[in-house]
Amino acid sequence: MQNHSQVSPPPPRRWLQGGSVARALLGGLFALGLVAGCERIAFYSTGRPPPDSNEGSTTASSSSGGSSGDPTGGMGTVTRATLIDAIATCNLELLDTFQKAAQELSTAAAKAQTDPQARAEAQAAWSKTIDLWQRAEPFQFGPGGPTNTPGGQGLRDTLYSWPLVSRCLVEQNIVSKAYEAADFGTTALINMRGLAAAEYLLFYTGTDNACNPASAINTSGSWAALSADELASRKAAYASSVSSGIAAMAGKLLGAWRPGEGDFDTQFRNAGKSGSAYTTEQMALNAVSDAMFHVEIHVKDQKLARPLGILDCANATCPEAVESRFAGRSRVHVRNNLVGFRMLMSGCKDGEGVGFDDVLTALGATALAEKMSADVNGAIAAADAVPSDDLAQALAQNPESVKQLHDAVKRITDSLKTEFVTVLDLELPQTVEGDND
């Protein structure tokens, strides 16, 4: 493979002046073998300004979205800056609402620790909190994103580590009472705390454990020595500890974004300007695009394809691989992931704001914008059509409904990793490159 470090960039082009320009550019790069399979070449990932020195002022007319037919609130144009501002506002509102719900969970779990009759209230608070978090999952860029991304602090996993979970580790902590440490909820291994651990502690009433018979809690008899009442009491105390940690980490994530605190919001809105973690606006949008691939990697593959037996499953189906095994909300989680994706694709407030569909329309790719918006709504409808909130039950009772949901999500991701990134001149995440599924 040739060394691409000496390859000159393509001629300057306007990002929002016609989809044919972006398609022609990408087509030329594919023909030269400079995209897919070699080094990732993109102006926004090099640290250099893009060839278009006026990227922030490039505009295009749009007539899609918005209750008044104008998604820009009277501006009449869509720019990269317009979209970035809309995403930033949406993100802050969502994280603020999530943080408030997390605080309610912490309060409810603390109450349930001393009053077993309040457990149902804590369960309802957990459901409200996880529903909001599932909507926020496709927003994992900036502080919520991985530490190897611009501004990334890896805060997502401290709140919800699924699919990295370990019931056995949680049960070992029940025996050892490690959860009694004051900082346990914010410093313990991520698969010992967070919303996934809280789900098990608040919803599972069984007295068995998932550890190997050779595990110390079984060979020593320390687990068996716990009465049902003592086990329930320790689970409630553990749930209160991790719920307090969830509230703290939710506050940390919100604070990392909020103006006047960490203020990554300003860095994101000021992409391409001095002081921002994003050297160009295109780089910021690519970070958002990468986060949107949650619907491909986590939703389509891990939450649906694996339980269906399509991927990484040695049996006809693998119902044990479903998310939310204790609260039985795996279908609801998928639906909320799709709602979160729609907030980015079509705009917040049920698509009334500025979203990527408005940019696609501005580029002349109206058909693609309409198709992807319709496909997202179709996938949400398919989720609603699954007859049980627990996908494991749905697999047993009506597997075709789960398959139809998978296929509906796949229609979104097929467009996301082909026409969407091509028209918008975005890079695929490295975890998706070469994936033709």
Automatic annotation (TrEMBL):
Location in the cell: Cell envelope
Residue numbers spanned by region Disordered: 45-76
Positions in coiled-coil regions: none
Low complexity: compositionally biased ranges: 56-65
UniProt feature, compositional bias: Gly residues: 66-76
InterPro entries with a match to the protein in the record: Imelysin-like, Imelysin-like_IPPA, Imelysin_sf
Protein name: Imelysin family protein
Protein's organism: Polyangium sorediatum
